[in-house]
Amino acid sequence: MALQHAASGELIPLKRGDDDIAHFTSVALAKTENMELIRLVLPKDRDMPVHKVDGEITLLCLQGEIVCDAYGNSTVLRPGEMLYLLGGVPHGLRANEDAVALLTILLKH
User: Fold this and answer.
1) Is 101 helix (H, G, I), strand (E, B) or coil?
2) Which bin fits 29, alpha (ψ -120 to 50), beta or left (φ > 0)?
3) Confidence of residue 21 (pLDDT cuts 50, 70, 90)
4) Closest Cα partner for 85 from 99, 68, 102?
5) Residue 23: beta bridge partners?
6) Given pLDDT bands bounded at 50, 70 and 90, which one contains residue 101?
7) Which of 7, 17, 99, 104 has the most Cβ atoms closer than 10 angstroms to its Cβ?
8) Distance between CA atoms of residues 83 and 4, nearest Å
9) Average pLDDT of every residue of the chain
10) Is the CB of residue 61 less than 8 Å from the CB of residue 39?
11) Which residues pair with 97 in a beta bridge?
């Protein structure tokens, strides 16, 4: 069964369920021709290897603590803090503690 994306104007819950942190869970919340919203769950000490995305991204930490390695630096994000990266920038993520984030990707055409 395909994941149902949120429709325009629909409420999107971002809090994780009690069992989400047991494994890496990435859920696409909404996707259009121009952008994608993803609720990202990162368990403590679970790395997301260095990768890059064509479009610009923002990463908003909602819970926990996330480290983003980019531009040769490590930036720590805590709840309420956001990071912006240009498209094509190699970056990796890891959680110092169980974390939830909202990832926005602007899609290139």
Assistant:
1) strand
2) alpha
3) very low
4) 68
5) none
6) very high
7) 99
8) 27
9) 86
10) no
11) 65
